[in-house]
Amino acid sequence: MKTSIWLAVVCLAASLPTQAQTLKPIELKDQELANLRGRFVMPGRIVSFGIVMSSTWQNANGEVIGAKSSMQIQQTTIKPQFYVSMIDEKGTGSAHAQNTGTGSVSGGNGLNSTEGVTQVVRAAGDNNTAYNNVDINVTKANQAPVIQQEGQALAAGSTLVGANGAGSLSVSSSGAGGVQLNIVANNNQGSTVQRLAQGGLMQNTTLLGAGNRVSNLTSLNVVLRENVPTAGSLNGNLDQLKGLRTLGF
Q1: In terms of pTM, does the model score above 0.85?
Q2: Residue 3 has what DSSP assignment?
Q3: For 9-66, what is each residue's pLDDT tens digit?
Q4: Which residues contact 191 (CB under 8 A, 6 or more apart)?
Q5: Exposed/middle/buried for 247, CB within 10 Å: 0-12, 13-18, 19+?
Q6: How far is 87 from 58, CA to CA, in rounded Å?
Q7: How far is CA 152 from the centre of its chain?
Q8: pLDDT tens digits along 108-161
Q9: Signal sequence: where (predicted)?
Q10: Where are the domains of the chain?
């Protein structure tokens, strides 16, 4: 009798999957992962949301051209709006003319179709420095910080331009394209573009000359409420974020 019981136990154990098979990981599809995005913070907890973008180009003579673009959204915000401040600094180096860049960079057409955060530096010159960085700062408070918006308002579909000895600059905004900061350096030194639009961020620098310093920075600042809000305040906070859709985000 005991023999038949042990035989049944052995047969049953042999028919069960091994531990390795039972704990085998299951790969999630991209579509399943996409459905998880943005579901970690309730809209009612967001007290303030801000974006600060800056792009600068300094040539070998010390001349700097660039721009800073910022937007702050909070409960009192009627319409999301970017404000742009131009950066124009005279050279601090020698007054001699900068040599024309002779470098060459090919390819890169696929960079315009990337998603998420893309950071690229392509260099065909000497003694250059390029810096791309994205910061996400999350703090907690029950009130939004007091921030004075500086610069000129950037209306949807408009473009602000500037130029000096370092190069030419354009800051543009469109309903479908978000915000883009673009610099084309003089004397064939290269170019840089920083674009925030449709859920993606691009920071792309191409260096063709020598002695240039380029910087692309984006900072996302979020303030979360310390106390859990009431159900009636959720829709009001969500409406503030919906305004970003008109800017292409």
Answers
A1: no
A2: H
A3: 444 444 444 444 444 556 667 666 666 555 455 556 788 888 999 999 999 999 999 9
A4: 182, 183, 184, 185, 205, 206
A5: buried
A6: 11
A7: 21
A8: 777 777 788 899 999 988 999 999 999 988 888 888 777 777 899 998 889 999
A9: 1-20
A10: 41-90+116-247
